[in-house]
């Protein structure tokens, strides 16, 4: 047998379809930002000193940590940087979870990678279904006694935000680590970042993939009390973030004005897309991410496949609770309008 039993038994994470750049397709399936990254970030890449390619990068990405400190008003030594926020999730599972005695708990539906990383460890998971109103099941999560509890806010694929008061209540009752995954926070109205100062067991995760339009760069970070970060640094790869990512990411982090302008445009487009989908008969939840979760009147799988034939990709999850729904990334206004016009054609057939 080539692999550990846990690896043979698990199902790997399935990313969204990624056609080659330049492919004539409208890509609304993996929640990329429709706008280009900060011009300042692009300028850094254009003028890259080739010496950075010869040398190892800073293992702690200290310049980037300083940029985070300036932008988010947190001490730079409260920041740990990873190869995307997925890397941060991996570090947390590796450092904290194990078998059936140190489990991972989270409400569902949510980011499927939590389950995948636990299976790789391996560590058992406690999955607690969200109620229909998506109120956080605090009592059940406390009872689960997870070594790690994952809460995505805004959550994908539902798009809802968890009130900070609920997260504070949960953090106060947990003995394990509370991971607040804020990958989509740039499109929301509030953040739970202040909780890291209140609780030593809370870490907030961020990424540059969504709000900063740098999904291809793979750069994310966590913010927590240094006592919590100390264990994560022990399991972090020595050079987990390359020099180019650090340089470009630092420039993007320091251009908050550009990021905020693009995020506001996405929020305006999200509101219009929600209205337009509802006019077509879709049930659409209010969303605080750069996507919407929509339930059509026809088969969701049929619409997903029909859109694909028309050169438009959206995300269909063939799993319980989501089989009648589509997650649709908010594109630019032209892309969103073409989506609506194509849906009209599909629904009229």
Question: How are the secondary structure elements laid out?
Answer:
Layout: H1 5-9, E1 26-27, H2 39-46, H3 51-54, H4 62-72, E2 79-82, H5 85-96, E3 99-108, H6 113-120, E4 123-129, H7 138-144, E5 148-152, H8 164-173, E6 177-181, H9 195-198, E7 202-207, E8 220-224, H10 226-235, H11 243-253, H12 256-279, E9 283-284, E10 291-295, H13 300-309, E11 312-313, E12 315-316, E13 326-329, H14 333-348
Parallel strand pairs: 1-11, 3-4, 3-5, 5-6, 6-7
Antiparallel strand pairs: 2-8, 7-8, 9-10, 10-13, 12-13
Apparent shape: globular
> What is the CATH superfamily of the largest domain?
Type I PLP-dependent aspartate aminotransferase-like (Major domain)
Task: Write down the secondary-structure element order.
Answer: HEHHHEHEHEHEHEHEEHHHEEHEEEH
Structural class: alpha/beta
CATH topology of the largest domain: the name is: Aspartate Aminotransferase, domain 2
Proportion of residues in extended strands: 15-25%
CATH architecture descriptor text of the largest domain? 3-Layer(aba) Sandwich
Helicity level = 40-55%
Uncertain runs: none
| Arrangement of strands in the largest sheet | 2-8-7-6-5-3-4
What do the pLDDT scores average to?
Answer: 96
Quick one: CATH class of the largest domain?
Answer: Alpha Beta
Count of helix runs: 14
Query: Major beta sheet, specifics?
Result: 7 strands, mixed
